[in-house]
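Entry 14. Ran structure prediction on the chain below.
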Amino acid sequence: MIHQLIKSIQSYFLAIQYMSKRSLWRWQIIPGIISFLLGALIFGLAYQFGDHLGEIMASWYPWEWGKSIVQTFFRIMGKILIVVTGLFAYRYILLIAISPLLSLLSEKVEQIYLDNPNHQEAGFSLRRLARDIKRGISLTLRNFTRELFYTMMLFLLSFIPGASVFTTPMTFGVQSFYAGFANMDFTMERYMNVKERVRFVRTNKGLAIGNGLVFLGLLMIPVIGLFLAPTLGVIASTLDVLDEIDDATIQHNNS
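Output, structure tokens:
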């Protein structure tokens, strides 16, 4: 698992090379703009309503002593809570919104990976668009419910004294796993059914966690991180998945 974790992180550097040397920057424009606008909306909501949410939470404090400190603390916590909740929803909304584009990008990367100029991409069609949106919604609902369940369980456990030392990295690990899963699925869906994809990710969980770890890290970088995260995440995960899939399976799928 550690080897896969390191490998998936290194794949982001390879993804940057693909972007620059293989003329993939044009694929960055629309996903990047949508990602940036969605992220800006989240941070805008935090700025606009964070203080109000903090004041509501501070109103639960019944004493006058230290009230100004408590109000300041909860104003900050209100902003943080909106940002954390928003970024949780951001990943799933983004997947549904731009899944057709990222699916096409994954196919383009596969063509380059196979070094096969005759490899036929599926191209754009309304039927494919509907299929990709349906796939995106289906995967989103499945992963959203599971990630939310595990995150809430870890959140409740964090109230046990001293438990937050363990629950905080575990929560980030869970979110990284499902973020990586979503990125990997753009490649897996061409080769596997749903059960096979779930089994593949569980077997290669190091790849999923490593990919999601960098993806979430990029989201924390103002402006440029939000712009680059979706495409770099998909390119890196496509390379990882293709490395793990049996060569015979790839050849059969493209024959």
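The CA atoms of residues 36 and 226 lie 5 Å apart. Will compare against last week's run tomorrow.
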